Amino acid sequence: MAPPGAPRSGDAIFASVERVNAELFTLTYGAIVRQLLTDLEEVEEVNKQLDQMGYNIGIRLVDEFLAKSNVTRCVDFRETAEVIAKVGFKMFLGVSASVTNWDADGTCCSIILEDNPLVDFVELPDTCQGLYYCNILSGVIRGALEMVSMKTEVTWARDMLRGDDAFELQVKLLKQVPEEYPYKDDE
Amino acid sequence: MAREVSESCIDSLLTEMVSSYCNRFDANKPELAGRRIEAIGYQVGHQLAERYTMERPRFSDHLEAIKFICKDFWSEVFKKQIDNLKTNHRGTFVLQDNKFRWLARMSVDPSIENVDLSQDTSALAENKATQAMGMHLYFPCGIIRGALSNLGIPCAVSADISNLPACSFVVRIKA
Question: Which GO terms describe its cellular component (chain A) (predicted)?
Answer without folding.
Answer: endoplasmic reticulum; Golgi apparatus; TRAPP complex
